[in-house]
Amino acid sequence: MHLCGACLDGYYPQAEGDDDPATEKPSRDPSKTCWDRLGHQVRREVGQFRDSAAGDPRGFEHVVKKTMRFQSMTIHLLAAVVISQLVSARSASAVDVLVTAATGHPYGVALIEIPVENPVIGRTFPPVEAAESAGRILHPISDDVRVRAARPSEQEVPTPGGGRLLGRVGNLIRELTSGEEDLEQTVSRRVSFLFTGSEPLRVRLFDAGGEIGTYEIVPRPEADAHREILAQWWQGYTDAAKRQIDSADYPALVENYLVAMLSGRTRMPLPDWYTEPVDDDELMGTLKLIGGAKGAGEAVFRSAAAGVSAQSPRATLPLPSPPRWAPPFAGERLDDVSVEPMATRVPPECFYLRYGSFTNYIWFRDLSKQHGADISKLVTLSSIENDASARIESQLNVESTDMSRLLGPSVIEDQAIIGRDLFLADGASIGVLFKATNAFLLRTSLNGDRTKLARDDPSVSLKEVKIADRTVTFLSSTDNRIRSYLIEDDGFFLVTNSKTMARRFLEVGESGKSLASTGAFRLARQLMPLERDDTIFVYFSPEMLRGLIEPEYLIELRRRFFAKADANLVHLARLAASQHAEAQTDAATGIDELVSLGFLPQGFGSRADGSGVVCVGDEVIDTRRGACGSFLPIADVEIDAVTQEEAVWYGRIAEQYTRRFSTIDPIMVGVQREELEDSPGIERITVHAEIAPWDPGKYGTIARQLGPPTRVAMKFAPDDIVAVQAHVASPQLGPQTHLFAAIKDTVPPRPEEFDGIFAAYRSLRQIPGYLGAWPQPGALDRLPLGLGIGQPVGPGMRRLIGGLYRYTDGEFSILSFQPEVMQASLPFLAATDVEDSAQVRIRVGNLYGSQLEGWVREQLYDRERQSSLAAANFLSLMTRQLKVDPDAALEAAERVLGNKMKCPLGGQYVYSPEAGRWTSTAWGRPDPPQLPPREYVAPTMNWFRGASATLTQYSDRVVADAVVNIARE
Fold first, then answer.
1. Helices 282-291 and 551-577: angle between axes, nearest 10 degrees
2. How many CA atoms lie within 13 Å of 550's alpha carbon, on the beta-carbon side?
């Protein structure tokens, strides 16, 4: 028996003469050192003393426990110090490795466990990587083995050498100052993996710190061992997948696919979390589906990956009925309201984004390109670059060129974007509408661009088609990457990807039943008249918003998710199959072959509407919708039948909308811009938004918490860089009250410092800000036991429980943890009369050059750091779990995700062969720094120069106003 040098639980010595690593078994050394026996003797004597004692049991138990620990630790400390002085050379030790491997079909499975020579409580080791020259190792998973750590006073004195005794002294000292809670220590590092074939393997283990060792493994055909190790590997693998999915800022397609595919191939059960239903009501689930929220399609993808969706029958039932909508707003006495000519050619079921001129369009396009990516990253926190707008421009063939910028103002009088939806990522029903100043030049320019593209690209065709008895031109490719109808009528030109929208444009021109003729739009133009001369005017009609909930739209949207899931599954199945010898043929790229080998579920491609996917080279095309990212517009999809499951699903949604949202309120937004004369390079953007008509009753209690609009606004201290106020009508506060809060220009605590109740309390005490009310609400005075009154510490100032201070003067009631902040602000606080009415007011000062800028910089950097790290981990996942060649990994990842991957820190993703993982050149090290480098500049800070906003809720409408100052290049 050869043992390691330290007496520690969890070591696995190997019996002498047992050279077969496949049959290595764990054992433990039963011997005890003299120091261990001495410690046990002391504890036994104290225990006997405790049993024979009298008095208060609880108090005495505590005393004896402390006494026992102190005596034992004293002995151990003395022994450790004496021995450390006598012995200077480290004794030899051998760390034995437990290896178990068993063959099986379709995979063998192996486990390698490496005892830790000196376990350290609280230490996290880097993952262990396994590699084999022939590439037979598949889907490795690394995890640590942790056990309850015996307290240092309960452990025997280790054999001297290697710093173990000094570490022991440190552990004993830490125990003296720590609490009573149990701790865990890592006693071994473990890696398990699947493998192909039955021949011996030569496995190299390494981690971020370097080489661990190389081991010869001889698998054995032992069914029981295979079953046991496979179950252990599966538990660790699915747990790791769940952690990765929960932390991912990208669609977790790879993780979800691997869990489903490996479950099918190994016949291991899917974990509970994989099949658990999403806990959303119908309204919230519908909003997520329409808005494309993160995770909206995850349940659909999991269902498709596991083969559940393939079991659905064909669609044979008629379309279910839509919600019972309330009658539309009539708009009597609004016939005299002026409307622009452009709106008279827009179908009522379309949204309407009007630029008013070609110059405004160019301004907005440049602004979006300059700062849109910053805002997108701020909202999505993702390293995936969303180029949906560029794809739409390319699909319609309306990209802006230097020539179009030059000629545009002279040939285009008015311009707008119209559409049935905003599903830009997968293919929207959308178009660009022009009102020509010079129809001949505009026609010539548009037709010339279309003819050139068809001539230069063999995959694109240009032909004439009939729509509503009119001849129009149709520019297209078979995968819908290019899909563009051009229609001219009475000086108006529409370029759209939707045949339905083209037909409706012509019908509206003949009937006059346009967006401009609806009562709701005329009300919008009464509230936001043409005289405002908005740079951009946006209007979402009730008909358009209702259309998103109609059965044809919502059911096809859901089917889109299944179509997209199938295309992604084929891409992933190809990558997974390329790792296996039995799939190293061209046939493996075919869908039938992938199904037969188990890389796609049985019944894959069987859809309710009869559509499916086909492979065209590296691309996967849906037979009905085209390529992902440019699906057939939903407005052009005809649905004549649904399944029972679809009918039930939609029926629940229709019932909820009938009961709770039988009316959908239109939304209107106006944007204006101006250059500030007193601030060169600064542009002010003013946004005015309204929802009207408006019914606050259906929006729940939140809408009823606000008091009536008021022209009272709080005046804050000059150094309050963030200030918020609200006029509320809450029964808990008493009469209608103005609540307000402000934060000084300083460095707030980090968000992680708020974790936990006590940590949050400590962090709040550090914030130099205050919370107040006017007039005094009196809610604090009604707290029991006088908790809201506190002890007087000065004129009008009282100290409450918990270190909170309160100031009252009969009108104001102000709370703060920092009385000096409150006293410095009191001279400036006042309730003032202003011109505009509002219930909520927000102001954020110019952060550029402020103390708060550094804090914001750190928070934005931390978000981008996590996003950059997540993307690198995703690429590492591709190379480790799917064995994608590093040279092809980035392209393969972008094909799966459907978008470009861009490091938010500005670097390039590169593969490190030594570490076996992906990093970014922006990091300058194996992992991104926790704090921003000196040269890092938060993109938002480049242009944000302050903002203010108000919200006003009337009985029949809601109004929001915002002003943002931005720096322009």
1. 60
2. 16
Q: Please give the pLDDT value at position 163.
A: 54
| pLDDT tens by residue, 620-670 | 999 999 988 899 999 999 998 999 999 999 999 999 999 888 888 999 999
The whole-angstrom separation of Cα 171 and Cα 763 is 30
Burial 652-682 (b: 16+ CB within 10 A, else e): ebbebbeeebebbbbbbbbbbbeeeeeeeeb
At position 480, the amino acid (one-letter code) is: N
Angle at 770 between CA 765 and CA 773, to 5 degrees: 135
Q: What is the mean pLDDT of the chain?
A: 80
Residues 6+ apart with CB under 8 A from 750: 858
Mean pLDDT of 961-969: 88
Cβ atoms within 10 A of the Cβ of 27, count? 14
* Amino acid (1-letter code) at residue 312: S
Three-state SS at 423: coil
Q: Which residues lie below 8 Å from residue 65, measured CB to CB, with a gap of 6+?
A: none
Specify the pTM: 0.79
Helix (H) or strand (E) holding 591: helix 591-596
**Quick one: pLDDT at residue 191?**
93
Which range is least confidently modeled, 312-326, 516-530, 538-552?
312-326
Token pair for residue 641?
């039948």
Query: Percentages helix, strand, coil for the chain, rounded to the nearest 5?
Result: 40, 25, 35
Which residues is 493 bridged to in the sheet? Answer: 434, 488
> Phi/psi of residue 675, each to 5°?
-90, 135
For the record, the structure tokens of 854 come out as 């550094």
Residue 772, φ and ψ in degrees, nearest 5: -140, 175
Which two tokens mark 817? 């943890």
Of 864, 873, 868, nearest to 254 by C-alpha is 873
What was the pLDDT predicted at 60?
Answer: 42
Q: What is the dihedral of CA 556, 558, 560, 562, to 10 degrees?
A: -130
E strands along 867-912, which residues? 900-901, 909-912
Name 385's bridge partners: 900
